[in-house]
Specification:
The protein is of the alpha/beta class. It has helices at residues 26-41, 50-64, 77-87, 102-110, 124-127, 150-159, 247-263, 265-285, 308-314, 336-346; strands at 14-15, 71-74, 93-97, 115-119, 132-138, 163-167, 184-188, 200-203, 299-302, 317-318, 320-322, 325-329. Helix 2 runs parallel beside helix 7 and helix 3 packs parallel to helix 4.
Length: 347
Protein backbone atom coordinates (compact mmCIF):
# COMPACT_ATOMS: atom_id res chain seq x y z
CA UNK A 1 0.00 0.00 0.00
CA UNK A 2 1.62 3.19 -1.22
CA UNK A 3 1.13 6.84 -0.35
CA UNK A 4 -1.87 8.45 -2.05
CA UNK A 5 0.05 11.59 -3.06
CA UNK A 6 3.78 10.84 -3.38
CA UNK A 7 4.42 13.86 -5.61
CA UNK A 8 3.32 16.25 -2.86
CA UNK A 9 5.37 14.97 0.08
CA UNK A 10 8.99 14.06 0.74
CA UNK A 11 9.37 13.57 4.52
CA UNK A 12 12.83 12.90 5.91
CA UNK A 13 11.34 10.64 8.60
CA UNK A 14 8.68 7.97 8.89
CA UNK A 15 6.00 10.42 9.91
CA UNK A 16 3.16 8.86 11.92
CA UNK A 17 2.17 11.94 13.89
CA UNK A 18 -0.64 13.68 11.99
CA UNK A 19 -2.81 13.73 15.12
CA UNK A 20 -0.29 16.27 16.42
CA UNK A 21 0.63 18.13 13.22
CA UNK A 22 0.08 17.22 9.58
CA UNK A 23 2.69 17.50 6.87
CA UNK A 24 2.39 20.40 4.44
CA UNK A 25 2.06 19.43 0.77
CA UNK A 26 4.59 20.94 -1.64
CA UNK A 27 2.05 23.31 -3.25
CA UNK A 28 1.35 24.81 0.20
CA UNK A 29 5.03 25.56 0.73
CA UNK A 30 5.26 27.10 -2.73
CA UNK A 31 2.18 29.26 -2.15
CA UNK A 32 3.45 30.56 1.20
CA UNK A 33 6.89 31.25 -0.25
CA UNK A 34 5.35 33.22 -3.10
CA UNK A 35 3.10 35.16 -0.71
CA UNK A 36 5.97 35.92 1.69
CA UNK A 37 8.08 37.16 -1.22
CA UNK A 38 5.23 39.40 -2.35
CA UNK A 39 5.01 40.89 1.15
CA UNK A 40 8.75 41.42 1.31
CA UNK A 41 8.85 43.17 -2.07
CA UNK A 42 5.68 45.21 -1.56
CA UNK A 43 4.04 43.88 -4.69
CA UNK A 44 0.61 45.30 -5.55
CA UNK A 45 -2.22 43.34 -3.95
CA UNK A 46 -0.01 41.61 -1.37
CA UNK A 47 -2.02 43.19 1.44
CA UNK A 48 -5.39 42.05 0.05
CA UNK A 49 -6.11 38.74 1.78
CA UNK A 50 -9.78 38.38 0.85
CA UNK A 51 -9.41 36.33 -2.36
CA UNK A 52 -7.47 33.58 -0.59
CA UNK A 53 -9.75 33.72 2.46
CA UNK A 54 -12.82 33.34 0.26
CA UNK A 55 -11.24 30.37 -1.50
CA UNK A 56 -10.24 28.65 1.75
CA UNK A 57 -13.64 29.27 3.34
CA UNK A 58 -15.39 27.79 0.32
CA UNK A 59 -13.08 24.75 0.19
CA UNK A 60 -13.59 23.98 3.88
CA UNK A 61 -17.35 24.46 3.52
CA UNK A 62 -17.46 21.92 0.68
CA UNK A 63 -15.43 19.46 2.75
CA UNK A 64 -17.84 19.54 5.72
CA UNK A 65 -21.03 19.95 3.70
CA UNK A 66 -22.32 23.42 4.62
CA UNK A 67 -22.62 26.70 2.68
CA UNK A 68 -19.62 29.01 2.91
CA UNK A 69 -21.77 31.63 4.66
CA UNK A 70 -21.92 29.28 7.67
CA UNK A 71 -18.12 29.13 8.09
CA UNK A 72 -16.04 31.52 10.18
CA UNK A 73 -12.24 31.56 10.04
CA UNK A 74 -9.74 32.24 12.78
CA UNK A 75 -6.55 31.03 14.36
CA UNK A 76 -7.56 28.76 17.24
CA UNK A 77 -10.23 26.22 18.10
CA UNK A 78 -10.01 27.35 21.74
CA UNK A 79 -10.98 30.90 20.75
CA UNK A 80 -14.05 29.66 18.91
CA UNK A 81 -15.00 27.41 21.85
CA UNK A 82 -14.60 30.47 24.08
CA UNK A 83 -16.95 32.36 21.79
CA UNK A 84 -19.59 29.67 22.30
CA UNK A 85 -18.94 29.59 26.06
CA UNK A 86 -19.33 33.35 26.40
CA UNK A 87 -22.63 33.23 24.52
CA UNK A 88 -24.33 30.77 26.90
CA UNK A 89 -26.80 32.12 29.47
CA UNK A 90 -25.82 32.19 33.13
CA UNK A 91 -26.40 28.84 34.82
CA UNK A 92 -26.31 26.77 31.62
CA UNK A 93 -25.30 23.13 31.90
CA UNK A 94 -22.58 21.98 29.52
CA UNK A 95 -22.02 18.24 29.12
CA UNK A 96 -18.52 17.04 28.18
CA UNK A 97 -16.66 13.74 27.85
CA UNK A 98 -14.00 12.66 30.32
CA UNK A 99 -10.47 13.26 29.08
CA UNK A 100 -11.54 15.29 26.04
CA UNK A 101 -9.13 17.79 24.54
CA UNK A 102 -8.45 20.82 26.73
CA UNK A 103 -8.99 23.42 24.01
CA UNK A 104 -12.58 22.19 23.74
CA UNK A 105 -13.50 21.91 27.42
CA UNK A 106 -11.38 24.56 29.20
CA UNK A 107 -13.28 27.56 27.80
CA UNK A 108 -16.43 26.28 29.54
CA UNK A 109 -14.65 25.59 32.83
CA UNK A 110 -13.17 29.09 33.01
CA UNK A 111 -16.39 30.89 32.04
CA UNK A 112 -18.03 31.90 35.35
CA UNK A 113 -21.63 30.85 35.88
CA UNK A 114 -21.67 27.64 33.85
CA UNK A 115 -22.33 24.16 35.23
CA UNK A 116 -19.90 21.82 33.44
CA UNK A 117 -20.69 18.14 33.88
CA UNK A 118 -18.25 15.47 32.71
CA UNK A 119 -19.13 11.83 31.98
CA UNK A 120 -17.57 8.89 30.14
CA UNK A 121 -17.61 9.26 26.36
CA UNK A 122 -19.69 6.11 25.94
CA UNK A 123 -22.38 7.49 28.30
CA UNK A 124 -22.60 10.95 26.77
CA UNK A 125 -25.86 10.45 24.86
CA UNK A 126 -27.56 8.77 27.83
CA UNK A 127 -26.52 11.59 30.17
CA UNK A 128 -28.19 14.41 28.21
CA UNK A 129 -31.12 15.56 30.35
CA UNK A 130 -33.69 18.34 30.62
CA UNK A 131 -31.76 21.49 31.38
CA UNK A 132 -28.65 20.50 29.42
CA UNK A 133 -27.91 23.51 27.23
CA UNK A 134 -24.92 22.24 25.26
CA UNK A 135 -23.09 18.98 24.59
CA UNK A 136 -19.43 19.57 23.69
CA UNK A 137 -17.44 16.60 22.37
CA UNK A 138 -14.66 15.70 19.97
CA UNK A 139 -15.67 13.53 17.02
CA UNK A 140 -12.43 11.59 17.45
CA UNK A 141 -10.67 11.52 20.80
CA UNK A 142 -7.18 12.98 20.58
CA UNK A 143 -5.61 10.72 23.21
CA UNK A 144 -6.66 7.33 21.88
CA UNK A 145 -8.61 7.68 18.62
CA UNK A 146 -12.04 6.63 19.92
CA UNK A 147 -14.95 7.80 17.77
CA UNK A 148 -17.92 9.47 19.44
CA UNK A 149 -21.39 8.21 18.57
CA UNK A 150 -22.41 11.55 17.11
CA UNK A 151 -25.72 10.24 15.80
CA UNK A 152 -26.90 9.15 19.24
CA UNK A 153 -25.52 12.29 20.90
CA UNK A 154 -27.26 14.54 18.40
CA UNK A 155 -30.56 12.68 18.76
CA UNK A 156 -30.43 12.92 22.55
CA UNK A 157 -29.54 16.62 22.40
CA UNK A 158 -32.46 17.41 20.09
CA UNK A 159 -34.84 15.44 22.30
CA UNK A 160 -33.92 17.64 25.27
CA UNK A 161 -33.56 20.96 23.45
CA UNK A 162 -29.78 21.07 23.83
CA UNK A 163 -27.31 22.29 21.24
CA UNK A 164 -24.17 20.46 20.14
CA UNK A 165 -20.58 21.62 19.68
CA UNK A 166 -18.39 19.04 17.97
CA UNK A 167 -14.62 19.41 17.65
CA UNK A 168 -13.76 17.82 14.30
CA UNK A 169 -10.04 18.63 14.45
CA UNK A 170 -9.11 14.92 14.60
CA UNK A 171 -11.70 13.94 11.99
CA UNK A 172 -11.99 16.42 9.12
CA UNK A 173 -9.60 15.45 6.35
CA UNK A 174 -9.78 11.68 6.78
CA UNK A 175 -13.25 10.97 8.18
CA UNK A 176 -16.35 12.11 6.27
CA UNK A 177 -17.95 14.93 8.27
CA UNK A 178 -21.41 16.48 8.02
CA UNK A 179 -21.10 19.74 9.94
CA UNK A 180 -24.73 20.53 9.22
CA UNK A 181 -25.77 17.69 11.55
CA UNK A 182 -24.45 19.70 14.51
CA UNK A 183 -25.19 23.18 15.79
CA UNK A 184 -21.53 24.17 15.92
CA UNK A 185 -18.27 22.57 14.88
CA UNK A 186 -14.71 23.74 15.43
CA UNK A 187 -11.65 22.52 13.59
CA UNK A 188 -7.97 23.42 13.48
CA UNK A 189 -6.39 23.31 10.04
CA UNK A 190 -2.92 22.04 10.91
CA UNK A 191 -3.64 18.36 11.50
CA UNK A 192 -5.49 16.19 8.97
CA UNK A 193 -6.21 19.20 6.73
CA UNK A 194 -2.43 19.63 6.29
CA UNK A 195 -2.48 23.41 6.63
CA UNK A 196 -0.15 25.54 8.77
CA UNK A 197 -0.77 26.49 12.37
CA UNK A 198 -2.84 29.63 12.71
CA UNK A 199 -5.78 28.26 10.72
CA UNK A 200 -9.06 27.25 12.36
CA UNK A 201 -12.72 27.06 11.39
CA UNK A 202 -16.10 27.42 13.07
CA UNK A 203 -19.37 26.31 11.51
CA UNK A 204 -22.70 27.68 12.70
CA UNK A 205 -26.36 26.95 11.83
CA UNK A 206 -28.27 28.82 9.16
CA UNK A 207 -29.51 31.30 11.79
CA UNK A 208 -25.84 31.91 12.80
CA UNK A 209 -26.44 30.29 16.19
CA UNK A 210 -27.17 33.38 18.26
CA UNK A 211 -23.52 33.75 19.30
CA UNK A 212 -22.31 37.06 20.67
CA UNK A 213 -19.47 38.26 18.40
CA UNK A 214 -17.32 39.28 21.36
CA UNK A 215 -14.19 39.81 19.30
CA UNK A 216 -15.82 41.55 16.33
CA UNK A 217 -13.09 43.57 14.64
CA UNK A 218 -13.09 45.27 11.29
CA UNK A 219 -12.93 41.95 9.41
CA UNK A 220 -16.31 41.04 10.92
CA UNK A 221 -17.99 43.83 8.97
CA UNK A 222 -20.32 43.23 6.06
CA UNK A 223 -17.89 45.19 3.90
CA UNK A 224 -14.60 45.09 5.82
CA UNK A 225 -12.81 47.77 3.82
CA UNK A 226 -15.67 50.13 4.73
CA UNK A 227 -15.64 48.95 8.36
CA UNK A 228 -12.20 50.04 9.51
CA UNK A 229 -13.30 52.96 11.70
CA UNK A 230 -16.03 53.41 14.25
CA UNK A 231 -18.86 50.99 14.90
CA UNK A 232 -18.96 48.06 12.48
CA UNK A 233 -22.07 46.85 10.68
CA UNK A 234 -21.65 43.10 11.19
CA UNK A 235 -21.60 40.65 8.31
CA UNK A 236 -24.89 38.85 7.69
CA UNK A 237 -23.00 35.55 7.61
CA UNK A 238 -20.64 33.60 9.86
CA UNK A 239 -17.94 36.09 8.84
CA UNK A 240 -19.22 38.18 11.77
CA UNK A 241 -17.27 35.68 13.93
CA UNK A 242 -14.04 35.92 11.91
CA UNK A 243 -10.75 36.79 13.51
CA UNK A 244 -8.28 38.93 11.60
CA UNK A 245 -6.59 36.17 9.61
CA UNK A 246 -2.97 35.12 9.62
CA UNK A 247 -2.61 35.61 5.89
CA UNK A 248 0.46 33.46 5.20
CA UNK A 249 -0.94 30.35 6.95
CA UNK A 250 -4.22 30.70 5.09
CA UNK A 251 -2.33 30.99 1.82
CA UNK A 252 -0.85 27.59 2.60
CA UNK A 253 -4.12 26.10 3.87
CA UNK A 254 -5.73 26.02 0.45
CA UNK A 255 -3.39 23.37 -0.98
CA UNK A 256 -4.21 20.77 1.67
CA UNK A 257 -7.96 21.32 1.30
CA UNK A 258 -7.72 21.02 -2.48
CA UNK A 259 -5.73 17.79 -2.22
CA UNK A 260 -8.36 16.25 0.10
CA UNK A 261 -11.09 17.33 -2.29
CA UNK A 262 -9.20 15.85 -5.23
CA UNK A 263 -8.60 12.48 -3.58
CA UNK A 264 -11.97 12.27 -1.81
CA UNK A 265 -12.51 11.75 1.90
CA UNK A 266 -13.87 8.22 1.46
CA UNK A 267 -10.71 7.13 -0.35
CA UNK A 268 -8.51 8.77 2.27
CA UNK A 269 -10.51 7.15 5.08
CA UNK A 270 -10.10 3.69 3.53
CA UNK A 271 -6.36 4.25 3.13
CA UNK A 272 -5.80 5.60 6.63
CA UNK A 273 -7.91 2.91 8.27
CA UNK A 274 -6.14 0.14 6.37
CA UNK A 275 -2.76 1.38 7.58
CA UNK A 276 -4.03 1.69 11.15
CA UNK A 277 -5.45 -1.84 10.91
CA UNK A 278 -2.10 -3.14 9.71
CA UNK A 279 -0.44 -1.49 12.70
CA UNK A 280 -2.98 -2.94 15.15
CA UNK A 281 -2.52 -6.42 13.71
CA UNK A 282 1.25 -6.09 14.00
CA UNK A 283 0.99 -4.90 17.59
CA UNK A 284 -1.24 -7.84 18.47
CA UNK A 285 1.30 -10.20 16.94
CA UNK A 286 3.94 -8.62 19.17
CA UNK A 287 1.77 -9.28 22.23
CA UNK A 288 0.53 -5.77 22.87
CA UNK A 289 -2.97 -5.45 24.31
CA UNK A 290 -5.15 -2.74 22.73
CA UNK A 291 -8.14 -2.37 25.05
CA UNK A 292 -9.52 0.76 23.39
CA UNK A 293 -12.19 -0.21 20.82
CA UNK A 294 -11.12 2.10 18.01
CA UNK A 295 -10.96 -0.31 15.06
CA UNK A 296 -12.41 2.28 12.68
CA UNK A 297 -9.99 5.03 13.67
CA UNK A 298 -6.88 6.29 11.89
CA UNK A 299 -5.39 6.93 15.35
CA UNK A 300 -3.91 4.03 17.33
CA UNK A 301 -2.97 4.28 21.00
CA UNK A 302 -0.90 1.64 22.81
CA UNK A 303 -1.41 2.03 26.59
CA UNK A 304 1.69 2.09 28.73
CA UNK A 305 4.07 2.35 25.77
CA UNK A 306 4.50 6.13 25.72
CA UNK A 307 8.12 5.74 26.82
CA UNK A 308 8.93 4.17 23.43
CA UNK A 309 8.08 7.36 21.51
CA UNK A 310 11.48 8.88 22.21
CA UNK A 311 13.30 5.73 21.08
CA UNK A 312 11.30 5.58 17.86
CA UNK A 313 11.97 9.26 17.26
CA UNK A 314 15.71 8.70 17.60
CA UNK A 315 15.40 6.01 14.92
CA UNK A 316 13.54 8.33 12.56
CA UNK A 317 9.93 7.32 13.28
CA UNK A 318 7.79 10.21 14.50
CA UNK A 319 4.96 9.30 16.89
CA UNK A 320 3.57 10.88 20.08
CA UNK A 321 3.38 10.01 23.74
CA UNK A 322 -0.11 10.88 24.98
CA UNK A 323 -1.76 10.04 28.33
CA UNK A 324 0.91 7.42 29.00
CA UNK A 325 0.37 5.66 25.68
CA UNK A 326 2.18 5.60 22.38
CA UNK A 327 0.00 7.26 19.74
CA UNK A 328 0.50 6.67 16.04
CA UNK A 329 -1.68 8.26 13.37
CA UNK A 330 -1.86 7.44 9.68
CA UNK A 331 -2.69 9.73 6.78
CA UNK A 332 -2.65 9.87 3.01
CA UNK A 333 1.12 10.38 2.76
CA UNK A 334 1.86 7.19 4.71
CA UNK A 335 2.52 3.73 3.27
CA UNK A 336 2.65 0.11 4.44
CA UNK A 337 6.44 0.45 4.60
CA UNK A 338 6.00 3.17 7.24
CA UNK A 339 3.84 0.87 9.36
CA UNK A 340 6.29 -2.00 9.03
CA UNK A 341 9.23 0.18 10.06
CA UNK A 342 7.47 1.24 13.24
CA UNK A 343 6.59 -2.37 14.07
CA UNK A 344 10.17 -3.44 13.42
CA UNK A 345 11.41 -0.96 16.00
CA UNK A 346 8.79 -2.08 18.53
CA UNK A 347 9.58 -5.78 18.09
Amino acid sequence: MESLAPAHFAPETVYLNTAATGLAPAPAVAAMTEAATAFALGRPGAEDHYPVMDAVRAAFARLVGVPARQVATGGSAAVFCGLVAQSLPEGSEVLCAEGDFSSLVNPFHVRPGLDVRTVALEKLAAEVRPGTALVAVSAVQSADGRLADLGAIGEAARAHGARTLVDISQAAGWLPVDAGAHDFTVCVGYKWLMGPRGTAYLTVPEDLGGLTPVFAGWVAGEDPWDSTYGRVSLARSARRYDENPAVLPYTGALAGLRLIEELGTERIAAHDRALAGRFRAGLAALGHDLPVPAEDSAVVSVPGLGHAAERLGAAGVRVSARAGGLRASFHLYNSAADVDRALELLA
